[in-house]
Every structure is written in structure tokens, then in C-alpha cells.
Amino acid sequence: MKNGSRISKEEVLHIARLARLSPSPEEIDKLTREMDSILGFFERLKEIDTTGIEPTSHAVELTWPFREDEARPSLPVDEVLSNAPERGKGMFKVKKVIE
Amino acid sequence: MELFRLTIHELNELYREKKASPVEVTRQVLSRVEKLDPEIHAYLTVTADSALKEARDAEERFSRGESRGLLDGIPVGLKDIFLTRGVKTTCGSRILENFVPPFDATVVEKLRSQGAVFPGKLNMDEFAMGSSNENSGFGPTRNPWDRERVPGGSSGGSAAAVAADECVAALGTDTGGSIRQPASLCGVVGVKPTYGRVSRYGVIAFASSLDQVGPLAKDVEDAAIMLQAVAGHDPRDSTSIPQPVPDYRKSLRAGVKGIRVGLAREYFPPGLDLEVNGVVQDSVRLLEKLGARPVSISLPHTDYAVACYYIIAPAEASSNLARYDGVKYGLRSSQGKGLIDTYFQTRTAGFGHEVKRRIMIGTYTLSSGYYDAYYRKAQAVRTLIRRDFENAFKECDLILTPTSPTPAFKLGEKTTDPLQMYLSDIFTIPVNLAGLPGLSLPGGVSRTGLPIGVHLIGPPLGEEKIFSAAYALESEIKWERRIPEL
Asked: Which of B83, B139, B313, B316 is the most exposed place for a label (fewest CB within 10 A)?
């Protein structure tokens, strides 16, 4: 596939919305160019036949450990909220969700 | 006496013999930082007051004969990816510019309980995404060997600080080479342990199935001491390995007699930098002289590793970085109209371009319709890369490769082409995909006076074998630290 045909500006905008990013028109142009070239680089993986190959999600095989469901001390609310941009009544405060 | 130049094991000996004091060493390291760091910019935060207090506590312990061990009173730098209670932790990002964690990472807790002194937090590529430290949200670190050049990344601040004696040793993280590549470019020792050997609890996540914590140090023995201090199972990290941690220092003098050292043809491509190749070949000869046996091996899927990595790592990153939304911590943009808009404004203002692009790539490859073609495919290729190593380790005990295809490059040299930058991790990335331990140690210096690292790869939990070979090699390599004084 030649350059400039793997991903369109519209797709880049759609992906940006999913990722909660609002790139400027210049950034969209740059991202479209760069993503096109990176997706082109990924094409080489198509050369490999992976039928029947199970995926690796973690490199070392572990059995997932179980533990007793016991209450343990957690951080005081005040410390948990200490980095909150806005707080109130022991909670994180955000802008209105439903208009 | 220039105590700041010494290693952990040398300082510990002086401490025990009361020939040097932790306070004196810490003062020297701090004044070194004050003198050099305006140029090098290895530090993002310097915690001089608390470091001196920690040093005084250590000194008291030594005077009472109650030392906590090898790291007691040793100034250890921390990459700014490790959460430190009460000390700002930015991960190199403007989005965390004012974040002050309410708890310590497990590795910080461990170092603290062993008496380490913390002079500060070290510069890095934003969210550990980069190979040059040019992606730091707070300005790049410069290579102490040549200030026009990069220190490597993403643990570039850690490598530069150790190289310039701005700390005695440091902790970094390695997702695709982020400890070993900067170690190579700055002429220090760097270790990426087996995936799961060190707890990731309290380490800001980039790509969770690849991230691993490890040391950067002045020599192999110090690297072994540092890994010893932080390794081990942690109930708070369910991916940490339950196997007991061996005594790494014991393995140092085991030698390499009869060890089969694998040389994979795929790691010596025709265009490889001649000096890099020369340094690796010198190491092969030295190992042979010491009784090791070089064997030719093949890792046939090497050529696909970078593409595989640049699908898997951004996919995991796009998910991990969803948490930076301006609600619980970090930057919140005041421009947002309503909650959703606040997410958009905050993330757009807070992330740098490289991070945004990786989030975009990851979101794309995980989005419906593309998941099988990219992410699932890359995970299957990952299996093949892992099997390459499994097969190779039937024929050899260790693998020797270059760490980085070139010595340190100039600032700005690779910033315009992301793929060029990505390829500087070509020899380190497969090791993360396979979850193996890897170590870079200084192998020599280029004609232009830049350090060149050699890379040892071991089988899962093969850290001891790597340390034995690295220690043997280190004592044979004619190595001279030639950092120009600033």
C-alpha cells in the first residue's frame, strides 16, 4: 500500500474522540502522516503465518494467586483526596455530568 | 577525597571502617548535582534536606554498629516514575506536574528500609515513551560524555546521573530497552530483570505486560547489590514472581568456564555500525579467553519484534493512560464545559506529542474491526519471538548482542522521524517481549570518545548467569571512565 492511503484524517479524528483528545488541525495533519507511516511499518507482520499460534499476553506463566478477602487498612480519605483538583464533602468534585 | 566517584561496595567498606561518613558522601553528591545539573539536567526534583536527614540517620546507625546493610547511607537516584510519599512524582509529564503521591512504591519502601539516601527524582521521557529523553515535559537530559548528544531513554536521567556521579546508583524502568539503551549510551551498567522479578506496585504504568524495574550502576557488583535490594515477590503485584531471590553477589565470581555464549546472526546485520560490532567481537574474544564457548544461533523472528512491540506497548498504554482525566489527581483544565469536555481539554493540554501519538496508535489497534489484525496478531508474533529464545537456550546458556545499534546520537537527530527513533531499541525490545533478563555493560569507547555497551541476555530467572559473565567480562575490559569534566 502506498503512503497516504492507510488512514484518513476522518479516521484520525474519530480515534482522537475515542481517546478523549482534541488535536488542532495542524496536529491532525501531523498525526495522519505519522500514523500512516507507522501502520505501514506494521504491515510486515502479515508476512508471518500465525494460524494456531496462541497469543502471549504475559511473558512468564503464573497461576493467578488467590488470597483471603480480608479488610486491610487503606489510606485516610484526606490523603486520597490530597491531589484532587477539586474536592468537597470528602469526595472528588467534577463538573456537571448531565446538562 | 572525591567520595562521589566511588561505588556502593567501596563506600560501604569505608563506612564500616569509619573512613567516610554518609553525611559527607551525601554532601559531596549534592554539591556535584548543584555544579553539574544546570547543564546535564538529570534531576527533576532535588530533595537535599530530606537526603541529609536520611544520611544523618544512617551515620548514627553506623556509629552504633547497627548498619542496615550495603545500601545504608548510599545516595540512590530514583527515576521520576516511582511513587515517593510526599515528594512530587511527574513521570516526565506536565499532566502530573504537581502530583505528590500519598504512598511509596514497593521498591522505594524496600530501599528506604535498607537505609538508602534519596537525593532526588530523575528526568525521563514522558511516561517512559522515548529513547533519548527528548520527550521529557521538562526539557531533555544531556549525555555527560558529550553534551550535544542524548543520554538515551527513557531512563536517560538515571543513566546520566550515575555516569556523572550525581548519585551512586539509580533505579530505572525498562519496557523496550529503557534501562539498557541509556546505560549503553552513558557508559554505565544497566539491568532489566526477568518480567515479574521486581514489584511494579507504585510504578507508574506504561505497558504493563512489558514494564520492569531495574538498576543502573557504576559496576556489575553494584548492579547486583541494587537488584538484590529490590527483587522479590510482592502481594500487591499479582504478576510478581513467587520464586525466592538468590544471592546475586555470590554469582559474581562464578566465572564463565564452559559457558556457551550464543551469537545470533540476526543481531549482526550487514549495516551494523563498525565500532559497535568491533566492541562486541572484542567481548566475544575475552569471554573465549576466559573459557566460554561461542556458539552460532538464530532468532528468526527478530525482524518483526519492533513492529510487534509498537502494537502491544501503545495498546496497553492507551488503556493505562485513560486514568489521566483531571478528576482524581494531576492537571485539570479550567476550559472544559462539562465533565466530558474537561477530559478532552485536560488530556489535550497535559500530554506531549509522542504520548498522544502512542495513545492514538493504541486506541486505533484496539478499536473494533482492527483488534484481530493488529493486537491479536502482535500477541501471536510475541509467542513466536518467545519460542525463538526458548529454542536458542537449548543450544546456549547466554546470548551476547550489541545493546544499541549506534553510540549516543545528537539531540534533534531523530526527533522528526518516529520510526528512526523506534529502531534504536531494535536489540533490546525482543527481550521485553519474551520477558527475559538482560544486562548492558560498557564494552568500549568509540574513536569519538563515546561509550558502547554490550548486551547479555539470559533465560527466564537467569540473572545469576548474566551477572557471572558480566563480572568476568568487566574485569577483562580495559575500561576507563573518560567523562570530560564540565
From this structure: B139
User: How close does chain A come to B317, measured CA to CA in Å?
Assistant: 11
Give the SS3 label for residue B45: strand
SS3 of residue B96 by DSSP? helix
Is A21 exposed, middle or buried (CB count within 10 Å of its CB: 0-12, 13-18, 19+)?
A: buried
Rg (C-alpha) for chain A, rounded Å, is: 23
Nearest residue on chain A to B342, alpha-carbon basis:
A95
Closest in A15, A85, A95 to B360, CB measured: A15
CB contact under 8 A, A86 and B367: no
Catalytic (active site) residue B18: no
State the pLDDT confidence band at A3, using cuts at 50, 70 and 90: low
| pLDDT value, residue B422 | 85
Burial class from Cβ neighbours inside 10 Å (0-12, 13-18, 19+) for residue A34 reads buried
Residue ranges of domains in chain B: 3-260+395-477, 303-381
* Residue B35 a catalytic site member: no
Q: How confident is the model at residue A66 (pLDDT cuts 50, 70, 90)?
A: confident
- pLDDT for position A59: 65
What are residue B82's DSSP bridge partners?
Answer: B203
Taking residues A44-62, report their average pLDDT.
86
Question: Residues in chain B with pLDDT < 70?
Answer: 481-482, 484-486
pLDDT for the residue numbered B274: 95
- Listed in order, strand segments (DSSP E) in B403-474 are 438-445, 451-457
Query: Which CATH entry fits the domain spanning B3-260+395-477: 3.90.1300.10, 3.40.50.10780, 1.20.1250.20, 3.40.50.720?
Result: 3.90.1300.10
Is B163 in a helix, a strand, or coil? helix
Asked if A84's CB is within 8 angstroms of B360's CB, the reply is: no
Q: Look at residue A1 in the predicted model and tell me its pLDDT.
A: 43
